[in-house]
């Protein structure tokens, strides 16, 4: 029994040393690659600078936010306006900030407006149908979202004659409405049907808003109907979750080309995407880290439990 305990203590020490080494290891492709931008870590296949990302679709530019000067990562080249504030390798998702669409009115009619859309055609990204919803806010608001190629149209309506008729936390058509999105949506525009010229709701609710955003993030508040509060509060955008794939072929096809195959770690598994043509990589069971890097997946301390059971 003493020998078994000594063996287990040595194993614990070894695994702890491996964990410390794994934490110290960069999540970038090469040592010279920038590992973070502001407060955000940049994991490969994303990267900043030449030879640091898988392909141009995963290029990240680090630059100041135009509204407040905060250094943030942006998806794409130097002219990109799509800020990124979250990467998930295990879920193959990235969370980005996307501007609102809005139309604001006064007694004379339309006063201020903006139309916001996104086109991800010919990229490895798609708008996540499981994480996002199309949302509209306002009284006398009919908003719709459509694919830029005309292949998809949906929308919702929101009405209220008084603010008292709306309730915070509810988004069922009174002050706020939502609808689901289709799978594999890669482009959209968010627009409105104009309010009528006789509409007087502008006096207490001057603006209509629409956007595609993370459904877990959004919680309707009645204050969003007042003035231009919502537009001012989220002038940098709302969180939009994108799914991505490492390549636009199946795992079976990808494995035939060792040079371009994305799952580099020996302890990684390939999975065909469930939302579009392509594949993603994850560390094998009992391992964690970055499957897109050589030796990126390292063993976890969960192995200790299994070995203790075997030893007993």
Report on this structure.
The structure is a single chain. Helix 1 packs antiparallel against helix 4. The chain contains 4 helices and 21 strands. Helix content is 13%, strand content 33%. The C terminus is likely disordered. It folds into 3 domains: 90 residues, no CATH class; 56 residues, no CATH class; 150 residues, no CATH class. Strand 3 and strand 4 form a beta hairpin. The strands form 7 sheets. Strands 8-7-16-11-14 form a 5-stranded antiparallel sheet, with no helix packed on it. It has a 4-stranded antiparallel sheet with strand order 5-6-17-10, with no helix packed on it. By secondary structure, the chain is an alpha+beta fold.
Low-confidence stretches: 4-9, 11-24, 307-312
Number of helices: 4
Structural class: alpha+beta
Q: How large a portion of the residues is in β-strands, by DSSP E?
A: 25-35%
- Average pLDDT works out at 85
Distance N terminus to C terminus?
9 Å
Shape: elongated
**Residues in helix, %:** 10-25%
Strand order of the largest sheet: 8-7-16-11-14
- Domain count: 3
Q: Please give the number of β-strands.
A: 21
Oligomer: single chain
| Computed CA radius of gyration, to the nearest angstrom | 24 Å
Q: What's the main sheet like?
A: 5 strands, antiparallel
């Amino acid at each position: 029994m003493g020998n078994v305990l000594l063996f287990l203590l040595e194993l614990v020490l070894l695994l702890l040393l491996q964990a410390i080494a794994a934490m110290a290891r960069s999540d970038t492709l090469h040592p010279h690659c920038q590992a973070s931008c502001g407060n955000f870590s940049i994991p490969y296949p994303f990267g900043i600078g030449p030879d640091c990302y898988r392909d141009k679709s995963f290029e990240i530019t680090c630059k100041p936010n135009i509204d407040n000067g905060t250094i943030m990562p942006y998806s794409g080249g130097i002219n990109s306006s799509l800020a990124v504030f979250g990467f998930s390798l295990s879920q193959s998702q990235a969370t980005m900030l996307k501007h609102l669409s809005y139309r604001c009115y006064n007694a004379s009619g339309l006063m201020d407006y903006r139309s916001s859309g996104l086109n991800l055609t010919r990229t490895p990204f798609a708008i996540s149908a499981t994480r996002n919803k199309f949302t509209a806010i306002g009284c006398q608001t009919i908003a719709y979202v459509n694919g830029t190629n005309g292949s998809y149209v949906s929308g919702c309506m929101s009405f209220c004659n008084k603010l008292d008729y709306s309730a915070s936390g509810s988004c069922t058509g009174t002050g706020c409405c939502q609808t689901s999105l289709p799978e594999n949506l890669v482009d959209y525009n968010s627009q409105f049907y104009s309010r009528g010229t006789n509409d007087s709701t502008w006096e207490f609710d001057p603006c209509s808003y629409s956007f595609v955003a993370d459904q877990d993030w959004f919680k309707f508040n009645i204050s969003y109907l007042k003035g231009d509060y919502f537009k001012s509060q989220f002038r940098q955008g709302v969180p939009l979750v994108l799914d991505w794939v490492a390549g636009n072929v199946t795992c079976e096809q990808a494995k035939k080309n060792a040079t371009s195959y994305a799952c580099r770690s020996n302890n990684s598994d390939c999975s065909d995407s469930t939302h579009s043509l392509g594949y993603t990589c994850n560390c094998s069971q009992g391992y964690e880290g970055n499957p897109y890097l050589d030796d990126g997946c390292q063993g976890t301390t969960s192995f200790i439990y299994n070995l203790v059971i075997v030893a007993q």
